[in-house]
Amino acid sequence: MKYFLQRLGFYVFTAWAAITLNFFIPRLIPGDPVQALITKYQGQLSSQAIESLYVLFGLDENGSLWSDYVDYWKQLFGGDLGLSFAFFPTPVSEVLGDSILWTLMLVGVTTILSFAIGTGLGVLAGWRRGSWTDGLLPVTTFLSSVPYFWLGIIAIYLFTGPDSFFPSGGGAEVGLVPAWDVYFIPSAIQHSLLPALTILVSSVSGWILSMRNMMVTVASEDYITVAHAKGLPERRVALSYAARNALLPNVSGFALSLGFIVGGTFLVEIVFSYPGIGFQLFQALGANDYPLMQGIFLIITISVLVANLLADIAYLLLDPRTRKEG
């Protein structure tokens, strides 16, 4: 319990520091969102309208940086993330609500699938080392070192075109309204296949390598030799003894990867123009949209911290040695 409270206190402090940086960093970026709107409307805004925009966005000279910081914390505790500059007058929470489901469905499903497939293949490759499975290791090593977005660019070049089944970008067919119906769902699945395969091919290789290496290490332990000496079935020794202990580092890695679901594949969404959190951040940067950037960074920060806390809890539950004092 003491260990858990210490870790919880550490994460609370980290959250405060991250949220503070989240407030200051966007304001250090050169540029002015009001000027971006003026450019967007090609000088059609009057001087009074421009002055009103500065006041509305909280960019006027009347308030100090400290008062803005205090107001920012008050808004967070009230559940108010402000108004988006790029999608004015839509609230940031509404913009994030529309886009986060796209990211969760795409990256969340691919993360779980890549972990399950990669761990299973890693157990097989590590337990039967020296067999044909080791011939796949150079390929998996190469794929795990290739960034998601680079694979995405190659996939667009190879598999998209006028007569291709795979669309080159977007989240669904143009003109379809997002809804759980027989028109939108198939279109959304079709548009997500190529970015999902891109993420899956790259990430599954890393799970195979890590699990294979842990299986090789665990297979040389004394308790594995004792299990063989008892005459236990090979399948039981591999799964119940070797894989169960080799899985511990992968479980922590999986918990951390869940935290990066929201922000781990920004460039993939940008490459495929996929309407998720990453693509929204790209638009927010172009428009100097402080509230939207802060909202996205806040979600990423909280996701990573919660995932780290869950990883610590999972390790406490799975490995009894971590629960012993001293």
Automatic annotation (TrEMBL):
Q: Where in the cell is it found?
A: Cell membrane; Membrane
Task: List the membrane topology term(s).
Answer: Multi-pass membrane protein
Answer yes or no on keyword Transport. Answer: yes
What's one Pfam family here? BPD_transp_1
Q: Which UniProt keywords apply?
A: Membrane, Transmembrane, Transmembrane helix, Transport
Q: Which GO terms describe its biological process?
A: transmembrane transport
The GO cellular component terms are: plasma membrane
Which ranges carry the ABC transmembrane type-1 domain? Answer: 100-311
PROSITE patterns xrefs: ABC_TM1
Task: List the signal peptide residues.
Answer: none
Q: Does the keyword ATP-binding apply?
A: no
Query: Where is this protein primarily located?
Result: membrane
The transmembrane segments are: 7-25, 100-124, 136-159, 188-209, 254-275, 295-318
Quote the PANTHER family the UniProt record gives: OLIGOPEPTIDE TRANSPORT SYSTEM PERMEASE PROTEIN (PTHR43376)
What family does the database annotate? Belongs to the binding-protein-dependent transport system permease family.
Protein's UniProt name: Peptide ABC transporter permease
- Look up and give the organism this protein is from: Actinoplanes utahensis
